[in-house]
Amino acid sequence: MWKSLFAAQCNYQGDHLDSEAAPISRSAQQQHPPPLSPDTPSLFVDAALDQKNGVIGTGFIFKLGFQTVLASHCHHLPGAVSPIFAEGQALLQSLKWCIDSQLSPKFVFSDCLNLVSKVNSAWQDNSALSGLVSQIRLLFSNFPDASLQYLPRQFNMDAHVLAKEALRPREDS
Which InterPro entries match (predicted)? Predict the structure, then answer.
């Protein structure tokens, strides 16, 4: 079944736009990735932000463990508001993509510690971000066995590269 899955993969050409969600203390950063069995279905998510052009690039990769890529997707979205909102949009879009693609992750990884903390807690207020977090939680209900976990950027580079690639201008053929 896994071999029959296919998703468009972006080719990274190397742009230099940056997306940082929030500074993370050295104590919160990990030097090693969390333990993950090679056959564990996992979703890796990231966003890149281009505030100058008002766009977000999202990248998500569905893997078995850390190595085996089963499917990937990158997407260009209008409306670059803030880094955490961009990361939230990426997470929301990745969960919709998993539902549409009939993929069921056991773990969902994001390198935005602030967002992971908000989604995993009972946090809410009257902000647009709170509404986005509520939408993410609702989509997570489609994956009752899945958990959202923080993963430092250094271990989430494949999704980061896809997110940056989504920001690249497309030539019409």
Answer: RNase_H-like_dom_plant, RNase_H-like_EbsB-rel, RNaseH-like_sf, RNaseH_domain, RNaseH_sf
Q: What is the 3-state secondary structure (H, E, C) of 31-81?
A: CCCCCCCCCCEEEEEEEEEECCCCEEEEEEEEEECCCEEEEEEEEEEECCC
Report the DSSP beta bridge partners of residue 68.
64
Each residue's pLDDT tens digit, 56-94: 999 999 999 999 999 999 999 998 789 999 999 999 999
* 55's tokens: 């766009």
Q: Domains, the chain, ranges and CATH? A: 41-167 (3.30.420.10)
**Nearest-angstrom CA–CA distance, 171 and 161:** 19
> Cα separation of 31 and 26, whole Å?
10
Residue type, 114: N
For residues 115 and 84, is the Cβ–Cβ distance under 8 A?
A: yes
